[in-house]
Design goal:
The structure is a homodimer of 296-residue chains. Chain A has 296 residues and is an alpha/beta fold. Chain A folds into two domains: 1-108, Nucleotidyltransferase, domain 5 (2-Layer Sandwich), CATH 3.30.420.300; 121-282, Nucleotidyltransferase, domain 5, CATH 3.30.420.310. Chain A is 38% helix and 24% strand. The first copy, chain A, has nine helices and 14 strands. In chain A, the strands form three sheets. Chain A has a six-stranded mixed beta sheet, with helices on both faces. The first copy, chain A, has a five-stranded mixed beta sheet with strand order 12-11-10-13-14, sandwiched between helices. The first copy, chain A, has a three-stranded mixed beta sheet with strand order 5-8-9, with no helix packed on it. In chain A, a hairpin with a 6-residue loop joins strand 6 and strand 7. The longest helix of chain A has 19 residues, at 223-241. The two termini of chain A are 24 Å apart. The interface between A and B is large, with 43 and 43 residues. Chains A, B: It holds the Pfam family DGOK. Chains A, B: This is 2-keto-3-deoxy-galactonokinase. Chains A, B: Keywords: Kinase, Transferase. Chains A, B: InterPro entries: DGOK (IPR007729), DGOK_C (IPR042257), DGOK_N (IPR042258).
């Protein structure tokens, strides 16, 4: 492999990904399960070298990282920047390295005071999305464990709101009696009906959850239908809570393709046709934009 | 200890309790963590003897059990009885025992076809409550992992609805990022405000969950306040979903005293003053009522 001129890093709570970059082109990619939660104190440099130490690295190769690696419990705290502000600003925060081949910088997250909210990592994806769509004005939605709804206008993040829908789905499907009810597969009709129910009557979530279990016991509700209905109840409640974000605005979805398809279907039933972008694309474009602030 | 003339057993998913009874009076009580989930196939009799085998038992001592022990995966399946019906009916289902000292009978649960719902164990508590309050007409609410709202009229269970609020609270507070936010203690104002918010805007749960985390990070939200607010959001959403049950009806709460106090406070803010009864009292009274169907 030719020597990368920089390294892009997406370092979240549960996983670490790195790309050897030449300009905006990835030469190689590596990933590990060593997310922030798995790193002992002082262990960030070693975990990164485990992943990229085999690459041919010039001295002081710039490494641009985003995500929870900049949290208080991360490699170095990159303090939140308060909105409204552009998704990236200034030079990312330097992290100390013993290895002279590395020059690590961490992109700060964003915070909002009222209502209180925070993001780390999504600001980089939004910057990447804006570098690809510089005139975008509307709402960027980033589905995932902590789904972010972000109002973007004139190149700035105006406001945002988080719904921990993905984490709620995981907790319900792994750590409650619903683990007996849900399973592989999908059911578009069950999903659509549940979204519609939760959008108009969000309180139905309270009784709809055990309803999945009871319908499985009494009527043999299929696991695929139960999965889709659970997802639909949660996404429908999220859409009810974030209506002020998506109603009447241009909406862009960034995330894993399967998950984005579900959000797109739910939004389309409400008359909103979102544009879809892969998370990888925006992450790399955003880290490349952050890299230009270090060595333009 | 004098010999009990029967044994009362409450055998749920996660725990087993037994009382040595003389008439309606408990002579002794024993408990173990060997709930249904912890019993290997064929292991129910051994688990029960571990707990009560040391008591002085006459041959064929009646043992009356309620709860998940009557589920398909339990000792013997006690098929659901469909509502509307009295909470108890007929002779409980016999379970095979090798030990000649035991004559085990299991109280069947109740089912409802539309909307699908099931209960196992609460029917016995309702029977006990009705034996103590024979003229009650209204709604019995049994807070817990799977909170039941039960419309009782003329000695029958007319309809019921389950909200898995307790299990949802446990999954959120143990298996999501909220485990960093919540802690010991309580905050009545935070609870009341959250109940009110969720009753009027139940969709706020979707964004209110991560809001607890963000407010902890940015504004130092106290763990006791976060706990009370999480509980209030969930109970408020439950009250919004079960309004048809509690609005304008006599309401009786049966359960753990601390939890019942929270439900009572939430209902009182809506102009409903429930009566409170301890779960132990109704369970024993209900098992005693079931015992009279075996040997009146």
């Amino acid at each position: 492999m030719t020597a990368p001129d920089w390294i892009a890093v997406d370092w979240g709570t549960t996983r670490l990904r790195a790309w050897a970059m030449r300009g905006t082109d990835p030469l190689a990619e590596a990933r590990a399960e060593t997310g922030m939660n798995a790193i002992p104190p002082g262990g960030f440099e070693a975990a990164l070298l485990d992943l990229v130490g085999g690459w041919s690295l010039a001295p002081a190769t710039p490494v641009i990282a985003c995500g929870m690696v900049g949290a208080r419990q991360g490699w170095v705290e990159a303090p939140y920047r308060p909105v409204p502000c552009p998704p990236l600003g200034g030079v990312p925060v330097a992290a100390h390295c013993d290895d002279p081949r590395l020059n690590v910088r961490i992109v700060p997250g964003l915070s909002q005071s009222a209502p209180p909210d925070v993001m780390r990592g999504e600001e980089t994806q939004i910057a990447g999305f804006l570098s690809l769509n510089p005139d975008f004005d509307g709402v960027v939605c980033l589905p995932g464990s902590h789904c972010k709804w972000v109002h973007v206008s004139a190149g700035e993040v105006v406001s945002f709101q988080t719904a921990m829908t993905g984490e709620l789905f995981a907790a319900l499907s792994r750590h409650t009696v619903l683990r007996h009810s849900i399973g592989d597969g999908w059911d578009d009709d069950a999903f659509g009906d549940a979204v519609s129910t939760a959008l108009s009557r969000p309180e139905r979530l309270a009784t709809g959850l055990f309803g999945l279990r009871a319908e499985g016991l009494l009527d043999g509700l299929a696991p695929a239908s139960a999965t889709a209905r659970l997802s639909g109840l949660l996404i429908g409640m999220e859409l009810a809570a974030t209506r002020a974000y998506w109603l009447g605005r241009a909406v862009a979805l960034i995330g894993a393709p399967d998950l984005c398809r579900h959000y797109a279907a739910a939004l389309q039933a409400q008359g909103v046709t979102p544009m879809l972008t892969r998370a990888d694309t925006t992450t790399l474009a955003g880290l490349a934009a952050a890299r230009r602030t270090v060595a333009p």
